[in-house]
Amino acid sequence: MISLHALSREAVAQVAHLELPRAQVDFVGDIAEMSDDPDPLIRMHYASYQTKVIGFFKVDLDISRRIPHLAAGTFGIRGVLVGGQYQGHGYGTAMLNALPDYLRETYPGANEFWLSVDAHNHAARQCYEKAGWVQIGPDRDGRCGKENVMRLSLEE
């Protein structure tokens, strides 16, 4: 079973072993870059399976800074990854399926989360869609080109 946890800036060494295939680094950056984010509105989190740390993601307390058509203070997800050494075992799907309950518990004032995913990253977009994310748009220019904007409602 996958479990999700907060990751303090002092404990980022816990995720340093996560590697990504080169093609995926283009979309999110490497783990050193992602976990060295000094932004005070970013909260880091990790995913574990049994005793192994297998994934990482960030919560942005104001994703409108990256997706300007959203209201200030809108919650978002950034940099979702499963280490390359753990891919292909269903961990990404399990992590995304665990995310809504974790976000409800950890961010009780938020009723929705937003993200953007590279329009060419079909595998990631399909995983998000299967986990309940809906492509809303409008698209935005991102790290590698056009990104699709997606929303996850936390209302039950």
Report the sheet with the most strands, covering strand number, pairing sense and barrel closure.
4 strands, antiparallel
| H/E element order | EHHEEEHEHEEE
Which structural class best describes the helix and strand composition? alpha+beta
What topology, given as strand order, has the largest sheet?
A: 1-2-3-4
Tell me the number of helical segments per DSSP (H or I, 4 or more residues long): 4
* The number of domains: 1
Mean pLDDT: 90
What would the CATH topology be?
Aminopeptidase
At the first level of CATH, the class is Alpha Beta
Reported CATH architecture: 3-Layer(aba) Sandwich
Radius of gyration: 14 Å
**Percent range for helical residues?**
10-25%
Distance between the termini: 22 Å
Gross geometry: globular
- Could you tell me the number of beta strands? 8
State which percent range the strand residues make up: 25-35%
Low-confidence region ranges: none
Multimerization state:
single chain
Account of the 3D structure:
This protein has 156 residues and is of the alpha+beta class. Helix content is 24%, strand content 31%. The chain has a single domain, classed as 3-Layer(aba) Sandwich (Aminopeptidase), CATH 3.40.630. The chain has a four-stranded antiparallel beta sheet with strand order 1-2-3-4. Strands 5, 6, 7 and 8 form a four-stranded antiparallel beta sheet that branches. The model has no long low-confidence stretch (mean pLDDT 90).
